[in-house]
């Protein structure tokens, strides 16, 4: 799975939960999902559920704290896919 | 140790969430799901429970930075009672940590919860809180709101500015004038906010910030 493809999918999924689409203009791997994109923690759960659907994976609660940035989300997805 | 959380009940996706079975199963215990289902207003109950879990997590994570926000592991106790101010109080239990005492304000526009964890001695009533519409706080100030360069480091949105202004106001009303509200960079995001005065942390004050949609909220515990 190419990292760039996962990045695009993560951005597409995250964008569904962002109220101010302008915040997507500078989005990159280092973007902090909660602080930079103004996504609250309840919506972060929705993002994780949507990513689980997209990739047919299950993200354990124990790794939720690791998902701070877009890069973190990509890392978790790739790890889950490689472990399948 | 304190934490607080606010939920704007007017945001899209907030009302009707009690029908989102997958979200419910991911976040709430069986007993909490029963509480939501049987509540007069299931959506408001859902967000009250959520806010309590989030407030408790913020409080616990100040004491234990490695704690994981696994929402089901923060269970809101069924017993709740009204205090002398008419606010609901309750407990959030998290395995391995002392119970976190929580206090809610529930209005048609928002649900706010503050939690306090004091090494076994809880005192939610001692926590000062403030809730306001963010726009109202920003209407009379410049875009940066007069925040210092150190404060602006962790500011990304206008509501981030507004919540710091509210926290400053809350501090000022409680004998701490001219403070800065600074969050340092942490491994996954920003660390807990700290009140600074004359470039030094105010040792006897603990601050918690929250914002959602239109609303911003701050909590202050003075030791």
Spans of chain B of at least 5 consecutive residues whose pLDDT stays below 50 are none
Coarse morphology of chain B = globular
Structural class of chain A: mainly alpha
Structural class of chain B: alpha+beta
Total of helices of chain A: 4
Report the order of strands and helices of chain A: HHHH
Gyration radius of chain B (Cα, Å) is 17 Å
Mean pLDDT of chain B: 90
Shape of chain A: globular
Number of helices of chain B: 6
Low-confidence segments of chain A = none
Secondary-structure element order of chain B, N to C: EHHHEEEEEEHHHEEEEEEE
Give a verbal description of the structure.
The complex is a heterodimer of chains A (84) and B (223). The two termini of chain A are 12 Å apart. The mean pLDDT of chain A is 92. By secondary structure, chain A is mainly α. Chain A is 55% helix and 0% strand. Chain A is built from four helices and no strands. The relative contact order of chain B is 0.17. With 223 residues, chain B is of the alpha+beta class. Chain B has six helices and 14 strands. The model of chain B has no long low-confidence stretch (mean pLDDT 90). The longest helix of chain B is centred in the first third of the chain and has 22 residues, at 42-63. Chain B has helices spanning 21-27, 30-38, 42-63, 134-138, 149-152, 158-173; strands spanning 2-8, 74-76, 81-82, 88-94, 100-106, 110-116, 128-133, 180-182, 185-186, 189-190, 194-197, 200-201, 205-212, 215-222. Helices cover 28% and strands 30% of the residues of chain B. In chain B, strands 1, 2, 3, 4, 5 and 6 form a six-stranded antiparallel β-sheet that branches. In chain B, a hairpin with a 5-residue loop joins β4 and β5 (100-106). The interface between A and B is medium-sized, with 24 and 26 residues.
């Amino acid at each position: 799975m190419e990292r760039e493809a996962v990045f695009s999918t993560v951005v597409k999924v995250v964008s569904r939960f962002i109220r101010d689409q302008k915040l997507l203009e500078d989005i990159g791997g280092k973007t902090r999902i909660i602080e930079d994109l103004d996504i609250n923690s309840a919506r972060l759960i929705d993002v994780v559920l949507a990513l689980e659907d997209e990739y047919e994976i299950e993200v354990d609660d124990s790794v939720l704290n690791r998902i701070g940035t877009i890069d973190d989300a990509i890392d978790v997805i790739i790890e889950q896919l490689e472990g399948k | 140790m304190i934490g607080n959380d606010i939920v704007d009940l007017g945001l899209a996706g907030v009302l009707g969430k009690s029908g989102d079975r997958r979200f419910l199963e991911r976040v709430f215990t069986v007993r909490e799901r029963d509480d939501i289902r049987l509540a007069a207003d299931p959506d408001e109950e859902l967000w009250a429970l959520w806010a309590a879990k989030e407030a408790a997590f913020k409080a616990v994570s100040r004491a234990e930075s490695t704690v994981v926000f696994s929402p089901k592991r923060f269970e809101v106790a069924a017993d709740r009672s009204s205090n002398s101010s008419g606010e609901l109080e309750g407990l959030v239990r998290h395995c391995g940590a002392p119970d976190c005492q929580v206090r809610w304000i529930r209005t048609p526009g928002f649900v706010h919860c503050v939690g306090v964890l004091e090494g076994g001695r809880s005192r939610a009533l001692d926590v000062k809180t403030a809730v306001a519409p963010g726009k109202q706080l920003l209407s009379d100030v410049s875009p940066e709101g007069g925040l210092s360069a150190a404060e602006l480091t962790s500011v990304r949105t206008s509501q981030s500015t507004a919540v710091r202004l509210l926290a400053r106001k809350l501090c000022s009303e409680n004998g701490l004038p001219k403070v800065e509200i600074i969050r340092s960079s942490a491994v996954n995001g920003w660390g807990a906010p700290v009140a600074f005065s004359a470039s030094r942390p105010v040792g006897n004050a603990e601050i918690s910030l929250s914002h959602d949609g239109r609303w911003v909220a701050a909590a202050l515990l003075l030791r």
